[in-house]
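[Archive record]
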Amino acid sequence: MLDGFANEAAAAAEARDRAEQESDPVVRDVLERIAGDEERHAALGLKMAMWALAKSPEQIIPVVRTVIRVLADDPSEVARTTALPCVRALLPWLESQRADGRVPVA
């Protein structure tokens, strides 16, 4: 989950930011293609996380909490401003699902 979703989303955001600041059109094009690839990887990682939730809901909340702790310790701006908020946004929803009895307590 950390690599497949959070890190790929962070890499996409970083490549996109660099592309927007790049003055060389060739380098900008390469960075935009990299960002697109990373965005597709992040989307696949999110699909895998959702699959894991469907298959093992009792295990996903501890995984999300671990990912949040790892990202919170990451000094990079992209982790702090992009990946961490994305993963943190999952936790309240998962907790509400658990409170409604849809995700068993881990």
User: Anything to note?
Assistant: The chain has one domain: 2-99.
